[in-house]
Design the sequence.
């Protein structure tokens, strides 16, 4: 075989072998056992990982942060109503042990560990533990104390505790002026919607991350929806008092033009048998949080 | 030009011939690819992660060069028997050892300087590409000159690792030198633990041994301020100066020991 011929043969062999490898890899995907990597966390001891990473702890923290985001995103996108974010706390715990200054990991945990399924892990205790760890590492970060108060307020409905944490945040130098007012209002008006609005507005103005601002804007839209539902229900009740029957359509109420829509543009549902006003099941402001007045009714 | 400088220049040329500087291409590709991909993955933490990645890569590539070139510097000359022709020239053994060290230090200096420049270019590009809202969310500026403090201490750390690798290469095989150098580097990351040994074991003798090891073994953990500079935690100039002095004195100590051993070595 000539020199050129042997080179062509060698090239062709390499191309065929590479194509075979690619083909076999594609076949492997069909046979591969379940994705254990996505659901398993082999090393859970933050102390061990911290030591094992030697002088590359910050980089390892970044890797665990990306894993935490992937775990959250993957779980949230899974079909089915019941979602389990079992690895979210261990991953965020590892992230913040490896890099105690990883501010966003604490705040991410505050939001998504505390929120109930399907949006989060439904573990306000873990959210508080993570934030407490952040506050121990960086006592000057008033945002963590505010976030602990927020978890007590919004998810645990423990208003005296929430007020205590807002007051503590207010004492930390650099905290905004409105924090003192928030602490006082929380203490005085346990869990009313105006206080909730004030809390989320505070988070919106102090948030340094787009996703946190989006979360605050979402909660504010939910509060708007709750206000609107309350107003509509009052109109429906008045109609019932006057006619002794529930309205079958929005038009029957007279004062409502067209179909009223929630802040995201989805039409409100009117139950002609009970007069209850609810969100459209497809509405993007679902599910509304249970506020104190709703809970008492 | 002195004999030491000539040896140093030759070591540098040899490392260029051995394509050691190719790692710069890997570094550049790594950073550029990371800067492109991370924005989608990290929920607004791309600048922090690029900084972590850049500083870790400067340290890791430098460490690999320091160890794997450092351990072969003297051993290669002995193994190839070129040491006889070298020492027959007007060059003393200390000059040879110090020249070898200076040569690899020059290689590392060029590496670290180019990697740092590329690192800052990527950060400047990311700053330029980001929106004013995203910039407002950064707690620490993207192109932060304080990161040079970390780069300086990485450089000092690499100088010390190189000196240790060279020291072991004056009397042992490359395999053993690699193990010993990397072993010492790993132990040096846990230096502070030796100080606590006495309280952990409740033994006065263990406490003494721990304290001696704490003071004698190189404190590599002390050179690591990457996390602090990335998060914007202030690192005093006095601390950087102290660690620079500590590293320089330790390098001098190890080089003197390497010269002493190499000078007494019998090549027959």
Sequence:
């Amino acid at each position: 075989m000539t020199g050129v011929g042997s080179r062509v043969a060698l090239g062709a062999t390499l191309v065929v072998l590479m194509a075979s490898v690619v083909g076999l890899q594609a076949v492997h995907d069909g046979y591969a056992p379940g994705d254990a990597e996505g659901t398993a966390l082999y090393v859970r001891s933050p102390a061990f990982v911290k030591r094992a990473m030697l002088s590359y702890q910050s980089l390892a923290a970044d890797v665990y942060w990306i894993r935490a985001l992937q775990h959250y995103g993957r779980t949230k996108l899974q079909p089915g109503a019941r979602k389990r974010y079992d690895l979210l706390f261990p991953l965020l715990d590892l992230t913040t042990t490896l890099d105690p200054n990883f501010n966003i990991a604490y705040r991410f945990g505050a939001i998504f560990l505390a929120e109930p399924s399907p949006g989060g892990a439904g573990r306000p205790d873990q959210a508080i533990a993570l934030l407490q760890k952040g506050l121990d590492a960086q006592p000057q970060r008033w945002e963590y104390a505010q976030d602990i108060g927020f978890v007590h307020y919004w998810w645990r409905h423990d208003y005296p505790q929430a007020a205590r944490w807002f007051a503590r945040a207010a004492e930390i130098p650099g905290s905004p002026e409105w924090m003192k007012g928030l602490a006082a209002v929380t203490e005085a008006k346990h869990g009313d919607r105006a206080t909730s609005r004030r809390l989320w507005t505070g988070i919106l103005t102090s948030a340094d991350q787009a996703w946190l601002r989006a979360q605050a804007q979402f909660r504010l839209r939910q509060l708007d929806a709750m206000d609107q539902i309350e107003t509509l229900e009052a109109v429906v009740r008045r109609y019932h008092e006057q006619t002794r029957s529930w309205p079958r359509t929005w038009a029957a109420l007279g004062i409502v033009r067209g179909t009223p829509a929630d802040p995201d543009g989805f039409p409100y549902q009117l139950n002609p048998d009970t007069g209850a006003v609810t969100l459209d099941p497809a509405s993007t402001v679902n599910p509304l949080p249970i506020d104190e007045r709703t809970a008492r009714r | 030009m002195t004999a030491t400088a000539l040896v140093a220049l030759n070591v540098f040329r040899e490392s260029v011939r051995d394509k050691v500087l190719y790692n710069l291409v890997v570094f550049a590709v790594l950073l550029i690819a990371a800067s492109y991909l991370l924005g989608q993955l990290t929920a607004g933490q791309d600048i922090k992660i690029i900084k972590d990645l850049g500083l870790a890569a400067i340290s890791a590539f430098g460490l690999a060069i320091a160890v794997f070139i450092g351990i072969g510097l003297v051993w290669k000359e002995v193994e190839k028997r070129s040491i006889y022709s070298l020492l027959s020239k007007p060059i003393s053994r200390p000059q040879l050892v110090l020249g070898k060290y200076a040569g690899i230090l020059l290689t590392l200096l060029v590496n670290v300087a180019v990697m740092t420049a590329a690192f800052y270019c990527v950060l400047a590009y990311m700053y330029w590409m980001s929106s004013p809202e995203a910039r407002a969310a950064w707690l620490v500026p993207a192109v932060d000159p304080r990161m040079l403090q970390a780069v300086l201490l990485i450089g000092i750390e690499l100088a010390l690792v190189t000196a240790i690798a060279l020291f072991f290469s004056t009397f042992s095989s490359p395999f053993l030198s690699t193990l010993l150098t990397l072993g010492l580097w790993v132990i040096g990351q846990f230096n502070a633990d030796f100080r606590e040994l006495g309280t952990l074991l409740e033994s006065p003798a263990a406490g003494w041994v721990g304290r001696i090891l704490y003071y004698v073994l190189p404190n590599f953990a002390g050179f690591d301020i990457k996390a602090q500079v990335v998060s914007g935690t202030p690192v005093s100039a006095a601390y950087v100066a102290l660690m620079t002095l500590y590293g320089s004195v330790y390098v001098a100590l190890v080089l003197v020991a390497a010269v002493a051993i190499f000078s007494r070595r019998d090549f027959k």
